[in-house]
Design goal:
Elements: E1 2-4, H1 7-19, E2 24-29, H2 35-47, E3 50-55, H3 65-70, H4 75-84, E4 89-91, H5 95-99, H6 118-121, H7 125-140, E5 144-148, H8 152-164, E6 170-174, H9 194-199, H10 202-213, H11 219-231, E7 236-245, E8 261-269, E9 272-279
Parallel strand pairs: 1-4, 2-3, 2-5, 3-4, 5-6
Antiparallel strand pairs: 7-8, 8-9
Helix pairs in contact: 7-8, 10-11
The chain binds pantoate.
Length: 282
C-alpha cells in the first residue's frame, strides 16, 4: 500500500493512474477503522482498479473540543487493517496540509437537510463535513465515494453537496455494519466503558421494536414509547428519537403510503454519543 501525507504527491500519483485509465473508489474516514470501513474498502476493490482511503480527523466538524481531543487515533492498527484488505492508497495528511493557517469551514446550504437531527445538536458539524469532503474530492477526484448508512444524514448531505456543486463523483451508501449483539459499528465504540458497552445494544433492540410497532402506532405515539423505554434505562440517556422522511429528513407526524421513512436516534452512553437508524417501511 502506498502512503501519502502530501496532497501534491498523492495528486501526482493518482494522475498517472488516471492516465492509465484506472478507476478510483474512495473511502474518506477519520481512522480508528473497523469492519464497517473494511466492507466499504472491499466493495471499492471489487468495483474499481484502485481503492483510496483517507484517514483524517477533521477538526472543523467537531463542535466540542473535548470530543475532538479524545477521538481515537489508532494509526498502526489502521495501516495493518488496510493492508489486510489490500487497500491500494492511504492518504494521511496533517491538519496544516489540509487547512494551512485557516482551520475553518465553508458555509453550505444543503436545502435544509443540515438543520434536522444532528444539525440541531452539533452546531456547524455539517459545514465541517461539507468542507472536508469537498476538499478531499478535489484532491482525489474519485469515480465513486463510499459511505456507511450509520451516518445517514451525512450521506444525504454529501449527495446534496455533489448535486449542488456538480462534483463529478458517484456517491454510494452501504448498509450499517453491526456487532453480533446489534450495536452499530463506530470508531467511538472503543471508548465505551465495559458497563456502557454492555448496555449499548439496547439502542438497536429498541429501534427494531419501534419498527415492529410502526403503522400500529403513529409517529408521535412511537416517539413517546421510545422515550419511555430510555427513561427506564439506568445507563443510557436519549438525546433524540425521531421518525423522518428519508429524503427530506424532516420529522413527520403523518405517514403517507408512497414515502420512505426511517427512525433516527442519538443516545449518550456515559459521555460517548452514539447514533443509529433503521428503515421503517418498504
Ligand atoms: O464519517 C466520517 O468518518 C467523517 O464524517 C468523514 C466523512 C470522513 C468526513 O470527515
Amino acid at each position: 500500500m502506498k502512503i501519502f501525507t502530501r496532497k501534491s504527491e498523492l495528486k501526482e500519483f493518482l494522475s498517472t493512474q488516471k492516465d492509465d485509465k484506472k478507476s478510483i473508489g474512495f473511502i474518506p474516514t477519520m481512522g480508528a477503522l473497523h469492519q464497517g470501513h473494511l466492507s466499504l474498502i472491499k466493495k471499492a476493490k471489487k468495483k474499481h482498479d484502485l481503492a483510496v482511503v483517507s484517514v483524517f480527523v477533521n477538526p472543523t466538524q467537531f463542535d466540542n473540543k473535548e470530543d475532538l481531543a479524545k477521538y481515537p487515533k489508532t494509526y498502526d492498527n489502521d495501516v495493518a487493517l488496510l493492508e489486510s484488505v489490500n487497500c491500494d492508497v492511504l492518504f494521511f495528511p496533517s491538519v496544516e496540509e489540509i487547512y494551512a493557517e485557516n482551520v475553518t469551514s465553508e458555509k453550505f446550504d444543503f436545502d435544509g437537510l443540515e438543520y434536522q437531527m444532528e444539525g440541531k445538536f452539533r452546531e456547524g458539524h455539517f459545514d465541517g463535513v461539507g468542507t472536508i469532503v469537498k476538499t478531499l474530492f478535489e484532491i482525489v477526484e474519485p469515480d465513486t465515494a463510499y459511505f456507511g448508512k450509520k451516518d445517514f444524514q451525512q450521506l444525504q448531505i454529501i449527495k446534496k453537496l455533489v448535486e449542488k456543486y456538480k462534483l463529478p463523483v458517484k456517491i454510494k451508501g452501504r448498509p450499517i455494519f453491526r456487532e453480533e449483539d446489534g450495536l452499530a459499528m463506530s470508531s467511538r465504540n472503543v471508548r465505551l466503558t465495559k458497563e456502557h458497552r454492555e448496555a449499548a445494544p439496547f439502542i438497536y433492540k429498541t429501534l427494531k421494536k419501534a419498527k415492529k410497532k410502526f403503522g400500529a402506532k403513529n409517529p408521535e405515539e412511537l416517539t413517546k414509547w421510545v422515550e419511555k423505554q430510555f427513561k427506564k434505562h439506568p445507563l443510557l440517556e436519549l438525546e433524540y428519537f425521531t421518525i423522518a422522511n428519508e429524503k427530506t429528513l424532516e420529522t413527520v407526524t403523518i405517514i403517507e403510503p408512497d414515502k420512505k421513512y426511517r427512525a433516527f436516534i442519538a443516545v449518550f452512553a456515559g459521555d460517548i454519543r452514539l447514533i443509529d437508524n433503521i428503515r421503517l417501511n418498504k
